[in-house]
Amino acid sequence: MDLDAFYALLTPRGQRALAEAGELMGADPVAAATALRRTYDAALTSAALTQARLRERAVAKFGEDARPMYFTPHGLEQSTRAEVAAHRARRLTKGDMGDAGSGDAGSGDAGSGGSAADWATEDGSTGDAVSGGGGRVGVRELTVVDACCGIGGDFLALARAGCAVTAVDIDPLTVAVARANAEALGLGGRVAVEVADAAGVEPEGYDVLFADPARRTARGRTFDPMAYSPPWPVVLDLISRAGRACVKVAPGIPYEFIPDGAEAEWVSYKGEVKEAALWTGGQGPARRATLLPGGHTLTATGAEAPVGPIGRYVYEPDGAAIRAHLVGEVCELVNGRLPDPMIAYITSDAPIDTPWAARYEIADVLPFSLKKLRAALRERKIGNVTIKKRGSAVDIERLRSDLRLNGENSAVIILTRIIDKPSVIICNTPLPA
């Protein structure tokens, strides 16, 4: 879809084509295209069908907001899930951009911050106290510059939180899509979107810099920050000139790229690590993990995980805690220990509930051997297994085939190392919560 085709979608005729394309979702693609071509030209038909398909895919990230929104394939892929964007907007408007202490490992949201008075009014609205003005006296909007706005997933959350956002992107089509999204969701009055290079942004003129550099090159997704767009040196320059900043990065960002003094936060949504963000301008913990949708947060305390023998239970820490190097803190929560000092599985003798780890009751522990494992599963009449691994080179799908399972029972098997020896832990299937 090019810029002209997108603008055609915004016309009354384009809106009718898009509505009809939405009604045809689920039909045979050729039949859908043929039906639309009876009324619309080829370019508008293609643009409408593409947009309708992208909206269907976007529901997973944006919920019902996706229905009136617009997308590009790359923009949808990189855009932030709505729940994660809302979490960041709450942190920003509450003043919790790195000023929180150790956080709440059990429940609640991600901390109230230590300088909220600078960033939010007593009634929860954003702004600093100033004199004069209309509406509520003494309130100034929090200003944010979104230096790589994409299709607008993050600035939509910021605008809904009460911020005044200036957003830029270097691609004219992406900017047009972002503007249309702000208007479609009734936020056009709080967001200004311009075509510009992020490198030319002047963060000094705003309260907060937000940036989500593109992580895709002509050869596909990149995990090298130096290949981001804009590249990492430009991002670091923007951060250095911003009073406060939040930069979205890939969860696997190497630690050496994290600026000194920044807080790195890894966010997990329903058990899957979605992204990381770097927060600067505060004096909070160096590392934080957050679980959504519950809002649980865990920060570094310096806890060190002891090493000891396998107990009755094995705990699998959430990926956000692992990425944030907080396995020691999770160990402390479950009064546990590591069977192997280099592997992020925890064992304990007590069944302790925590949102930070999945718990499995251990049925048996064996040195890894296909023959012994097969015999143990047959003895237990195991016909269905969930296979997990960490620190093992075994191919899971090949193992599943080689086990030749047959039986009515289920189990979880964990392939790992215990004191550097390849091992397998057979666990009972956990009961539904």
General description of the model:
The protein is an alpha/beta fold and 433 residues long. It has 13 helices and 17 strands. The protein has helices at 3-9, 12-23, 29-37, 42-62, 73-78, 82-94, 153-160, 172-184, 232-241, 319-323, 327-333, 370-379, 396-403, and strands spanning 143-146, 164-169, 191-195, 208-211, 216-217, 220-221, 245-249, 263-269, 272-280, 287-292, 296-299, 313-317, 346-348, 357-367, 382-389, 409-418, 421-428. The strands form 3 sheets. A 9-stranded mixed beta sheet has the order 3-2-1-4-7-9-8-10-11, with helices on both faces. The protein has a 6-stranded mixed beta sheet with strand order 13-12-14-17-16-15. Mean pLDDT is 88; it is low at 99-139.
What are its keywords?
433 residues; alpha/beta; 9-stranded mixed β-sheet; 13 helices
In short:
This protein is an alpha/beta fold and 433 residues long.
Low-confidence spans: pLDDT under 50, at least 5 residues?
Answer: 99-139
Q: In sequence order, what are the helices and strands, one letter per element?
A: HHHHHHEHEHEEEEHEEEEEEHHEEHEHEE
> Whole-Å distance between the termini?
45 Å
Number of strands: 17
Helix content: 25-40%
- Main β-sheet, in a few words? 9 strands, mixed
How much is the average pLDDT? 88
Overall shape: it is globular
Strand order of the largest sheet: 3-2-1-4-7-9-8-10-11
Strand content: 15-25%
Number of helices: 13
Query: Would you tell me the structural class of the helices and strands?
Result: alpha/beta
Rg value: 25 Å
Question: How would the blueprint of this fold be written?
Answer:
Elements: H1 3-9, H2 12-23, H3 29-37, H4 42-62, H5 73-78, H6 82-94, E1 143-146, H7 153-160, E2 164-169, H8 172-184, E3 191-195, E4 208-211, E5 216-217, E6 220-221, H9 232-241, E7 245-249, E8 263-269, E9 272-280, E10 287-292, E11 296-299, E12 313-317, H10 319-323, H11 327-333, E13 346-348, E14 357-367, H12 370-379, E15 382-389, H13 396-403, E16 409-418, E17 421-428
Parallel strand pairs: 1-2, 1-4, 2-3, 4-7, 8-10, 15-16
Antiparallel strand pairs: 5-6, 7-9, 8-9, 10-11, 12-13, 12-14, 14-17, 16-17
Helix pairs in contact: 1-4, 2-4, 3-4, 6-7
